[in-house]
Amino acid sequence: MKVGILAGGKGTRLAEETSVRPKPMVEIGGRPILWHIMSIYSSYGFNDFAIALGYKGDYIKKYFADYCSLSGSLTMTVGGNAPIIRHDADHAPWNVDLIETGDETLTGGRIKRLKPFLGDGTFMLTWGDGVADIDLNDLLAFHRSHGKLATVTAVRPPARYGHMTFDGDRVVSFEEKPQTAEGWINGAFFVLEPEVHDYIEGDNVMFEHAPLMNLARDGQLMAYRHEGFWAAMDTLRDKHNLETLWNSGERPWAQWEAA
To answer: Which intervals hold domain Nucleotidyl transferase (predicted)?
Structure first.
């Protein structure tokens, strides 16, 4: 099964990092967040990726060219014509299509442009800036159980601020940044059928707008409710939070470490 990843946005809310590289290449623990996302899928045996490029897409191409050719130990004859010999390469068994989808194309348009590379069957899709400890096998089983065209992973992210409840003016409870009690949001990690492309008219379509709204209207959009860890790297603060988790050893999305 193919996995599409949207990695072409400009990441303007993370301008401190994205002025020099695309957001999916911003590093957590010395690895691009794109690598973390792909590793989540790979830990469940999904290793066939189609990545939609846009803003600074050459940066991502160069990363994978170097990743393939420079991983592991090398033997070379300096000044000679002998081929470079690779030893014990330490990289995942990924097949990666890197597809130019335009600098200004919106999310729906990028998905539409990936269509020739996503195969004729069910495919997975996510954004290039979010991680989770999601059970992808359970997500896929849920999608297959309902028979609709689209499944979106619904998440309840932690609140940004502490939450208080009152008895008059007396504080009766205080929670530091609890998980939001209400308001499920789009956490990406979609499972989609090819017919979803028919809901996307062209490049200037946000997938989160008309396509998902119309899928919902037609009764073709189902939600997989994920109660566990989820985080999107939208701002420098988000990046620092993920980096802190990684450095502390508390890495809930790093399911490949337990595999």
So the answer is: 5-201
Class for domain 2-258, per CATH?
Answer: alpha beta
Q: What phi, psi does 123 have (nearest 5°)? A: -140, 160
Domain boundaries, the chain: 2-258
Question: Which residues face 191 on adjacent strands?
Answer: 124, 151
CA distance 108 to 208: 8
For every residue of 94-133, DSSP letters joined together read -EEEEEE--SS--HHHHHHHHGGGS-SS-EEEEETTEEE-
Tell me how far apart the terminal alpha carbons of the chain are, to the nearest angstrom: 20
Span 158-189, pLDDT tens digits = 766 666 778 786 667 766 656 555 578 999 99
Distance CA(101)–CA(7), nearest Å, equals 10
pLDDT tens string 212-225? 999 999 999 999 99
